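hiii so um. not sure if this is the right channel but i have a protein structure encoded as tokens and i wanna go backwards to a sequence. like what aa goes where. can anyone help
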């Protein structure tokens, strides 16, 4: 956020002088910003673990007392939020062009982000600095409509993708009826009520127009 230039009315009385001083002080701090993702970086730590950071640019310009626009500088290498619990998570990494909110931590958190452990601030006197921002999430109204998504509705859940949907698990259990509008392909056996599709036999076979018994 840009500094505010002093105007005559700012020092016309003690109250205005104090107000100006507070605006000057607060104007040097960052709290929460609307930002746009400019770059996604892949980082490899010394322990071999890889993760991603973002370069973002605040979209709200600063202005001088004469209403001149002050362009913002890019904030490099900030971390971002992921919905995660233990070893389970929703992986939806930000992309270049995304517009969202970035919250700025009160103090320097770089030591925690670099080590993943509790630590003292590397710069104890650094307060509300944009370099300690964490990208939270995209703002729906400022980004395009998603092409693949999970949408929760009053009457059900939609899972939509223009590409393949992969489910990778040792087993998948479905409770309820299943309707398929398309082909079903299986590399393994398909069974219905314990009867195998590929190897079942029919009894009561006779020549002519007779029908077989049910599958066994």
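sure thing!! here u go:
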């Amino acid at each position: 956020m840009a500094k505010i230039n002093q105007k005559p009315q700012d020092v016309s009385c003690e109250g205005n002088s104090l107000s100006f001083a507070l605006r000057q002080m607060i104007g040097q701090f960052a709290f929460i910003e609307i930002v746009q993702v400019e770059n996604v970086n892949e980082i490899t730590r010394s322990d071999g673990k890889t993760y991603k950071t973002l370069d973002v640019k605040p979209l709200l310009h600063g202005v001088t007392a004469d209403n001149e626009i002050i362009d913002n500088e890019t904030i490099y290498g900030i971390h971002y939020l992921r919905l995660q619990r233990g070893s389970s998570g929703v992986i939806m990494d930000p992309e270049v062009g995304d517009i969202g909110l970035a919250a700025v931590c009160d103090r320097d958190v770089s030591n925690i982000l670099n080590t993943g452990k509790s630590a003292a601030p590397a710069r104890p006197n650094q307060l509300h600095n944009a370099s300690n921002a964490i990208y939270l999430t995209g703002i729906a109204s400022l980004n395009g409509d998603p092409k693949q998504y999970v949408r929760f509705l009053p009457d059900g859940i939609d899972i939509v993708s223009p590409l393949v949907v992969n489910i990778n698990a040792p087993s998948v259990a479905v409770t309820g009826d299943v309707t398929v509008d398309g082909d079903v392909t299986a590399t393994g056996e398909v069974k219905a009520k314990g009867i195998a599709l590929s190897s079942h036999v029919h009894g009561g076979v006779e020549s002519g127009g007779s029908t077989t018994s049910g599958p066994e």
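oh and Helices lie at 14-27, 110-115.
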